[in-house]
Specification:
The complex is a heterodimer. By secondary structure, chain A is an alpha+beta fold. Chain A has 11 helices and 17 strands. An 8-stranded antiparallel β-sheet of chain A has the order 13-10-12-11-15-16-14-17, with helices on both faces. Chain A has a 5-stranded antiparallel β-sheet with strand order 3-4-8-6-7. In chain A, strands 1-2 form a two-stranded parallel ribbon. The radius of gyration of chain B is 23 Å and the shape is globular. The two termini of chain B are 25 Å apart. Classes of the chains: A alpha+beta, B alpha+beta. Bound molecules: flavin-adenine dinucleotide (FAD). Chain B: InterPro entries: FAD-bd_oxidored_4_C, FAD-bd_PCMH, FAD-bd_PCMH-like_sf, FAD-bd_PCMH_sub2, FAD-linked_Oxase-like_C, FAD-linked_OxidoTrans_Type4, Oxid_FAD_bind_N, Vanillyl_alc_oxidase_C-sub2.
Chain lengths: 374, 497
């Protein structure tokens, strides 16, 4: 199904006799059993006011189109969504609706915030076929409940997003990355966390097992003079003798970290663990001690751990080690035929409230069934 | 303004209720003497007041839970309260409610500098959070001008903003997790220092829910390293149109100041007379502040002042010292006090798209003239959050009602321009009956369905946010549905904002 308007979509959802799988660009991989509902017919730029930092677009609008539009005005999506194709190996082109539905946020989350922090409002057709509007197009808005936050990241389980209004920001005039080689995850994360606590506005803090050994990376963006100044102060404050990478070269580096290039290719299961930043190396050490090998990449100053595990996903081990530290683990790339749920169910009262909310918006439980366990 | 008729059955159970609350709380934590509940009869929206059944001031999440269990069993509505500085009547009691205040819960529970967060009890004031981490070089970014008095409890409930939110965002962007006590007494943890939680973004909808989903007893907040310094520049223009164009050009140029404040002619003249700030006599004044090291500040101000000059300013004053910076801010910071000197006033809080600024200011002037009242405008220009101040004389019969009617028309003008009724103060009772002018019925229904999940009996702050007629059926279990008018007082003068 490929609706061309909200009204048509509402009819389709209301009339659906079984499960509906929502599909934006299909970049996150294949859908489950049931009818596929494509959002590509709900595309187009509705409003773009650079001077108000506001963009309103149809949910099916390709990300690439939005990024080109913004770049022409020297602006960008501050939350730096990852290109999911790099890991999933899927074809297709990401849509804004899909990104908002997954709350996809890249390295800059540590400084600028997540996708959800830039969603000013959205429209959706919920599981009952109702056309709903939440939030608005202005930057400050506390009128009524913030349903736009609830829908962002709900992975289509509350409704089909049809339109999104976003806060955008200016792209910086300059950027630089400080790279220090040779540190293990633990020492690197201690430095990354220290860097985040200094007033130099670090906008990327990662650690990777680079081709020539482990690397700790810190990014700074802004006006040219300011970038040079802050990079200098940061280098003084932290151990090691950093190599400075600037401009397009720095941007390319962070594109690779955003998309998790280091773990691309192959069929190994890939995990995405969210933890308190200082617990990133702790979980890694625990997993290694339990005999789990595999390549890792740490982002968000340690709060995001990417892990490629050879062969079996080792779901019980990974989930238990993460949960012990209060975090959670998403299986982003699963081997064929794998029955492990990609996302863990929220526990306790949060799980019960989530399930009850979903029943309000999707009473027949037809939207993306099983994708996000309640 | 109407409030639901108090439920006689609830009123009748007062002795039993008070006795049961006394059994679970320390002696001083249950207040039922009318002379002592007086202080809880209203918040900073002082035009309306009402005495509650009693006030409880629990000292822990467990005590909050015990109180809520009792109220839940007896079917008694509960109005959560932080510091009572709401400008929207969010903490206004009804005659058949218990006011549950978190003012005794003010502890800092955990400071985690490495992970840039702090866990506090929500009765702590906004400023005390920054103070707790100041020595380590950190601060808590959302800074409502009531920050000396207002509590994190109310900040979370209202999703409060501040002067610096253009750069740092509002409460929801700086809130990592909460401990929430549901109406049936269940204590729930939502979020925390881990960047994302599985499942739906419950935290996102709890923030800004105006005390209607649960009582927030603890909060995890993001703290940030304090910038090296900050410096403002003052720019005067002959009209709001050109000032608006200047703001737009600055934003388009890619500089992101921490604050862009705007004052119109009436506001400039009143504040200057009051504070002696030495502002130019013009129709539009911008105060733009940037942060960083001295050299970084110069780099940003160079771009900003170059743009400002292109628009032909009446005056452009760069600060060269702490003292000069303070003088630039002096008038703006005393704007509300200055207005209070002249007259009583109502402070509105609508948001508009920045591009609609000149058109909306024109519309406000027209409406004010029609109503025969004066309106002064001061607002956060970077994000379009307006604070029109309607001046009136509370002692003149009928003038408050005229001022309120004008306020409603101005807010509807904001909605018509693509904006909203409230940018940071919340709906409360003040804007409750305008909600169906911004939202379609089905959208309000969807919001009420969220409350149904968290508070199925509609006992938590039930008479707020949603028009009474719309929520009547849901509130029926908790209280009467036919509306009455609560007691009305003359509005007090608010302090600086
Ligand atoms: C002089 C002045 C200046 C102001 N400036 C600003 C400003 O710049 N920006 C801004 O955004 N606001 C401003 N305000 C408004 C007000 O300060 C904020 O709304 C503030 O967040 C309210 O906090 P409070 O603790 O006083 O909450 P209260 O007034 O006690 O309550 C506000 C709301 O929160 C609910 N609530 C309170 N505690 C809890 C809890 N524990 N759990 C659940 N719900 C709860 C209440 O039921 C009510 O609906 C200003 C007010 C004044 C008087």
């Amino acid at each position: 199904m490929r609706p061309e308007s909200e009204a048509e979509l509402a009819e389709m959802v209301a009339g659906a006799g079984g499960p509906l799988w929502l599909r934006g660009g299909g970049t996150q991989g294949p859908c489950g059993a049931g009818a596929v509902l494509e959002t590509s017919g709900l595309a187009g730029v509705r409003l773009y006011e650079p001077g108000a930092l506001t963009l309103v677009v149809g949910a099916g609008t390709p990300l690439a189109e939005v990024e080109a539009l913004l770049a022409a005005q020297g602006q960008r999506l501050p939350f730096e969504p990852r290109d999911a194709r790099v890991l999933s190996g899927a074809a297709g082109a990401a849509t804004i609706g899909g990104i908002v539905a997954a709350n996809l946020s890249g390295p800059r989350r540590v400084q600028a915030g997540a996708c959800r922090d830039f969603v000013l409002g959205l429209r959706l057709v919920d599981g009952a076929g109702r056309i709903l509007s939440a939030g608005g197009r202005v930057m400050k808005n506390v009128t009524g409940y913030d349903l736009a936050k609830l829908v962002t990241g709900s992975r289509g389980t509350l409704g089909v997003i049809t339109e999104v209004s976003l806060k955008v920001l200016a792209a910086p005039r300059a950027e630089a990355t400080l790279i220090v080689r040779g540190q293990g995850a633990e020492a690197a994360v201690a430095d990354l966390c220290r860097a985040m606590g200094l007033p130099w506005e670090v906008s990327g803090a990662a650690w990777r097992e680079g081709p020539d050994g482990p690397e700790r990376l810190l990014r700074i963006e802004g006006l040219a003079g300011s970038v040079a100044y802050r990079a200098g102060r940061l280098a003084e404050a932290l151990p090691g003798d950093p190599r400075l990478v600037e401009g397009a070269q720095s941007a390319a580096l962070w594109r690779g970290i955003r998309d998790v290039d280091d773990l691309a290719g192959g069929q190994d299961p890939v995990w995405r663990l969210c933890l308190k930043p200082t617990d990133g190396p702790v979980v890694l050490a625990a997993l290694r001690a339990a005999g789990l090998e595999g390549r890792a990449l740490l982002d968000w100053s340690g709060g995001l751990v990417w892990l490629a595990v050879p062969g079996d996903s080792r779901a019980d081990l990974v989930r238990a080690a993460t949960a012990r530290l209060g975090g959670h683990a998403e299986l982003v790339r699963a081997p064929e035929g794998c029955t492990v749920p990609r996302l863990p169910p929220p526990s306790g009262a949060a799980g019960r409230l989530s399930a009850a909310l979903r029943a309000q918006f999707d009473p027949r439980a037809i939207l993306n069934p099983g994708l996000m366990p309640a | 303004m109407e409030m639901p008729v108090p439920d006689p059955a609830v009123l009748a159970c007062r002795p039993q209720l008070v006795a049961r609350l006394r059994a679970v709380l320390p002696e001083a934590a249950v207040i039922d003497a009318p002379s002592e509940t007086l202080a809880y009869e209203c918040d900073a929206f002082t035009a309306y007041r009402c005495a509650p059944l009693c006030v409880v001031l629990p000292g822990s999440s467990e005590e909050v839970s015990a109180c809520l269990k009792i109220c839940h069993e007896l079917g008694v509505p509960v109005v959560p309260r932080g510091a009572g500085t709401s400008l929207a009547g969010g903490a206004l009691p009804t005659a058949d409610c218990v006011v549950l205040g978190v003012a005794r819960m003010t502890r800092v529970l955990e400071v985690d500098l490495a992970n840039r967060c702090i866990r506090v009890e929500t009765g702590i004031t906004n400023l005390a959070v920054s103070a707790a981490v100041a020595d380590a070089g950190f601060f808590y970014a959302p800074d409502p001008s009531s920050q000396l008095a207002c509590a994190i409890a109310g900040n979370v409930a209202m999703n409060s903003g501040g002067a610096h939110c253009l750069k740092y965002g509002v409460t929801t962007n700086n809130l990592l997790g909460v401990t929430l006590v549901l109406m049936d007494g269940e204590v729930v943890q939502i979020g925390g220092p881990v960047p994302e939680a599985p499942g739906l973004d419950l935290l996102g909808v709890i923030c800004g829910s105006e005390g209607q989903l649960g009582v927030v007893t603890e909060a995890w907040l993001r703290i940030l390293p304090r910038p090296e310094g900050a410096r403002p520049v003052l720019i005067g223009y002959a009209g709001s149109e050109v000032a608006g164009a200047c703001v737009r050009d600055i934003i388009e140029a890619g500089v992101l100041p921490v604050a862009i404040e705007f004052m119109d002619g009436p506001c400039i003249r009143a504040t200057d007379a009051f504070s002696g700030a030495g502002y130019p006599d013009c129709e539009a004044l911008l105060i733009i502040e940037v942060e960083g090291s001295p050299a970084e500040i110069d780099e940003q101000l160079e771009i900003i002042t170059a743009i400002a000059r292109r628009h032909d300013p009446v005056e452009l004053r760069e600060s060269r010292s702490e003292a000069e910076s303070a003088r630039i801010w002096l008038g703006r910071k005393s704007a509300f006090g200055a207005m209070g000197q002249i007259n009583d006033y109502i402070c509105l809080d609508g948001t508009i798209p920045v591009s609609a600024l000149p058109e909306v200011l024109g519309g406000i002037a027209r409406l004010a003239a029609e109503a025969g009242l004066e309106v002064a405008n001061v607002f956060h220009a970077g994000d379009g959050n307006m604070h029109p101040l309607i001046l009136f004389d509370a002692n003149a019969p009928g003038e408050l009602a005229r001022a309120e009617a004008l306020g409603a028309e101005i807010l509807l003008l904001c909605v018509a321009a693509g904006g909203c009724l409230t940018g940071e103060h919340g709906v409360g009772v003040e804007k409750r009956d305008l909600m169906d002018r911004q939202f379609a019925g089905v959208d309000l229904e969807a919001q009420m369905q969220v409350k149904d999940v968290f508070d199925p009996g509609w006992l938590l702050n039930p008479a707020k946010v949603f028009p009474l007629g719309l929520s009547a059926g849901r509130r029926a279990g908790a209280g009467g549905s036919a509306p009455i008018a609560p007691g009305r007082d003359s509005p007090a003068i608010f302090g600086e904002r």
